Amino acid sequence: MAAAASSTHRPGALDITRRLAEICGPPFARFAGPADEVAGRTARWVAVPGGPHAAAEVLRLAAAHDLTVVPRGAGTKIDWGAAPAQVDIMLDTGRLAGIWHEPQGSGVAEIGAGTPLRAVQATLERTGQRLPIDAPSPGATLGGVLAADEAGPLRLRHGSPCAQLVGVRYLDADGELVSVGEPGTPSLGRAAPTARNRASGSATPAGGPGGAAALFGTGDLPGLDVARLLCGSQGGLGVLVSATLRVQAAPASRVWVSRPVWTPLEVHDLVRAVLAARLDPAAVELDLPVPVPLPRRRVSPWHPSVAGRPDHPALTGQATRPAAAGSLVVLLEGGPADVAERAERLTALLGGDAVVGHAAPEWWGRYPFAPGDTALRIEVPINDLHAAVYALRDAAGSPVPVRGSAGVGTVHAALPGSLAPDRVASILAAVRGVLLARQGRCVVVSAPAPVRRAVDLWGELPTLPCLRTAKAHLDPHHRLAPGRLPGGL
Description:
The protein has 489 residues and is α+β, with helices and mostly antiparallel strands. It has helices spanning 2-7, 13-24, 52-64, 117-125, 142-148, 155-158, 195-199, 211-214, 226-230, 264-276, 313-316, 336-350, 385-396, 421-436, 449-454, 464-474, and strands spanning 29-31, 37-38, 41-42, 45-47, 69-72, 89-92, 99-101, 108-112, 129-130, 165-171, 177-180, 239-246, 248-249, 253-261, 283-288, 326-334, 355-357, 374-379, 402-405, 410-415, 441-446. The protein contains 16 helices and 21 strands. α2 (13-24) packs antiparallel against α3, α10 (264-276) runs antiparallel to α13 (385-396) and α13 runs antiparallel to α14 (421-436).
């Protein structure tokens, strides 16, 4: 912090501040404060441009003075991934907001990168529409969700947010405004995976740190879809200005069918049964919290509560069924009659413990980790998800909170922030060893600074050469979020 503060007093710093104020307006350009950090790295300036052209001017100023730029939305994921090597200008996208273009009946909308996702959904809801995007981060902007390719429970039916892209407008490292795609054109993202695809056990990469690399195909760089590259790049390949996404009619009816679960293996069997039943679920989510042991009480055989009950465990010594350790919840969407029919079939499939509700459980669409924890994301074919959870438990020496999309094979887990870096490293090594043969990955989403510095956040990444090529092509001088991408890019 001291080094960053002193750097703003070097020759030319005041001139840069003055120029930023001219571009953005005096209230929207300033020296950075203690809260203006990116994964612990403090910025020198904060600029909040009022539109795409002002944002372009900020980038041109940065290029002229060889300054680095890191975009920031709402800051909900600002501590995800690696710390950048340097943050000269933090480009706040808060004024690049609004639904700018929504042709009547086109099924798409152009949305400013700085628009909170909740605001987008509230606006679309007035006309009976929605974005099929439900990122868990509260208050996240659309640009932040795309930059992390952050997906929530709806990823089972609709894929990641990148799959909803029709077009993007972004700024390259030199401040040139680039448009890719036009409203009404076919989607730039991959087709959303179906439940049947998931049941086959194929792994689909998720977003977050390094997510852009996972979206690479084969071939030369000019043939790659730039819009897909920006998803998951954390601002390291371009600054997103707006995105044109598909919108859809909001479902008339939604129900959540919940079933208690006790073991990862039981979850495996239930998920396979649900996906094979062709019930067209919108989401299949798992919550496995750390079980809290209940105190044991010895009951006298003469106590009124057990008198006359020879089968009571207090008399027979037989163990009772343990309290449920977690929940498997299936979301069904569609017309009221159709949803009711599918819910009836699903409850019969899941058994007598299944319950139908008209509101999501409290944990739905939330991460299992808290600030200060070491947050992990596990991506694995659904057939091997139980093996990954067991491997994590064995490596940690005790149950670990796990939550996420069991129907996709992508879940998050939380390790205590108090764990020493070498202990976290040993857990990662053990889990990654199990996942390697199963075509899975374990990524450190966020972690305390000592852990982040000591461990490999991404693990083995076969597409790193492609990502390096993209960085060299789109940001050859490494001015955009340097060091945020895998391999120190």
